[in-house]
Amino acid sequence: MSNYESKTDVILIGAGIMSATLGTLLKELIPEWDIQVFEKLDKPGEESSHELNNAGTGHAALCELNYTKENADGTVDISKAINVNEQFQVSLQFWSYLVKQQLIKNPEDFIMPLPHMSMVQGEENIDYLKRRFEAMKENPLFKNMKFADDAETLKEWIPLMMQNRDINDRIAATKVDNGTDVNFGNLTRMLIDHLENQDVAMHYNHTVNNVKRTPEGLWEVKVKNAQTGKVEKHRANFVFIGAGGGSLHLLQKSSIPESKQIGGFPVSGIFMVCKNPEVVEQHHAKVYGKAAVGAPPMSVPHLDTRYIDNEKSLLFGPFAGFSPKFLKTGSNMDLITSVKPNNVFTMLAAGAKEMSLTKYLVQQLMLSKEQRMEELRQFIPNAKSEDWDFIVAGQRVQVIKDTEENGKGTLQFGTEVVTSMDGSISALLGASPGASTAVKVMLDVIEKCFPEKMPQWEDKIKEMIPSYGKKLVDHPELLEEIVAEAEKNLGLR
Fold first, then answer.
1. Along the 493 residues of the chain, how does pLDDT read in single tens digits?
2. Which of 81, 278, 322, 338 gets the highest tally of CB atoms within 10 A of its CB?
3. What is d(CA 422, CA 281) in angstroms, rounded to the nearest whole number?
4. Residue among 293, 294, 316, 295 at smallest CA distance from 374
5. What is the rounded CA–CA span in Å between residue 24 and residue 442?
6. The dihedral sign for the CA sequence 137, 141, 146, 149
7. Using only C-alpha atoms, what is the Rg of the chain?
8. 70: three-class secondary structure by DSSP
9. How far apart are CA 290 and CA 308, in angstroms?
10. Cis bond leading into 215, ω under 30°?
11. DSSP category for residue 278
């Protein structure tokens, strides 16, 4: 034992929204467990979860057109949108429970009501949006959706976007009033504060360099303390790797069979930001457009009202960028060192398949400010250059893996959980809808990793998430009940 600093029940790597959510769930389910968190930065929620490193959209598929694809016969498939919305409802229920139990306070500091809209231009796109609207409005999850293609209604909904617009420019929009803007940075900090009050040990400025299995079947986590330079070893029964872009390298070091044939491709984002009160006050919504041909789904252009540090601003983007780093605070060698003998062919296959993505990234990198302003003017015709600055968003590492459906080297757009067969280690990879679905994703981790405990935990999970085990789309009365309760507790009315 003398070689080890600690032996604990659970180690969480990374102090972002995923670890914070998993830690909070576990502390509610089994308060006596000892949990330790290791974070390489000096405070929580500074990478992907930070409020300026993500779009802050409570992703509920109300406005994101990439969740509703068009079938060959002209019908619109809304199954993915239903799935994403169901997952967001789980998050809302859990946050509502935490506020009601006073485990976290001041929900207005992390969630605000904000309409979610989709906006398209041109007859073909308008026709698609109309068909999408017809398919969605019949569903209990989307029954509040409205559609408009007349200028008068659109001037009410999006006055800033309608100013000085060419009268021949045909546009249409859908609108759902009960969307949200979520400050995932603040939410992460609140959850971590709560965990510290529950005696969870937080270790900041601690970089995890290795994760390996011990002969006794425990996990040994090798950590460097940046302040003292000391290398420590900690052991745990269960390890969760929630280190954003840093998760892939640590998963590879675990050497579990499930970590083979998985690669990652980093994409960074740039947002334009406006803080001019005259402009900001004229727009109150998150408005999502259609992705350009070849663009990854996370690069859907959108114009968002944001609430950050009690200040209202507008963000437009994201414009894709490229850096070989897997984290904003990562290394330029991250992409190269992620290529291993077991994933090299997967990575090469993806490179050959994704030529349109490569071309898109190159084009995006070459854009001048004025060219970016031209893209913004598709949304705000009279946007002025002097009102807009740039911020660099967080790094996202898209998962590359072999799939039965699409063969070798398929780029995955979404969140992926990789878990060992015995459930003793789990890692979260991928990108959007990410943080919005954190509660559902972490519940899946709990189910997979602690199946023997689920019978005794089920009642408590249902107390926290009343819809647990049910599809809300099949229980409209329950849906109405939990939405009303969440809106009341979270101040969203």
1. 346 788 999 999 999 999 999 999 999 999 999 999 999 999 999 998 999 888 899 999 999 998 999 999 999 999 999 999 999 999 999 999 999 999 999 999 999 999 999 999 999 999 999 999 999 999 999 999 999 999 999 999 999 999 999 888 899 999 999 999 999 999 999 999 999 999 999 999 999 999 999 999 999 999 999 999 999 999 999 999 999 889 999 999 999 999 998 988 888 888 999 999 999 999 999 999 987 666 665 568 999 999 998 899 999 988 887 888 988 888 999 888 898 888 888 888 887 787 777 777 778 878 888 989 999 999 999 999 999 999 988 888 888 888 878 788 787 877 889 999 999 999 998 776 789 999 999 999 999 999 999 999 999 999 999 999 999 999 999 999 999 999 999 999 7
2. 81
3. 53
4. 316
5. 10
6. negative
7. 23
8. strand
9. 26
10. no
11. H
Distance of CA 204 to the CA centre of its chain: 23
Place of tokens 């709990």: 446
Instruction: Give CA–CA dist 188/205, Å, rounded.
Output: 17
- In what order do the strands lie in the sheet containing 171-176? 146-148, 171-176, 116-121, 286-288, 302-308, 311-321, 262-274, 388-403, 407-412
Residue in this structure with the two tokens 């976007």, named with its chain if needed: 161
Non-local CB neighbours of 391 within 8 Å, separated by 6+ positions:
52, 270, 271, 273, 315
CB distance 57 to 81 below 8 Å: no
| CA 314 from centre of chain | 19
Give the angle subtended at the CA of 393 by the CAs of 390 and 395, to the nearest 5°.
145
The dihedrals phi and psi of 455, each to the nearest 5 degrees, come to -60, -40
Residue 479 has which token pair? 């849906």
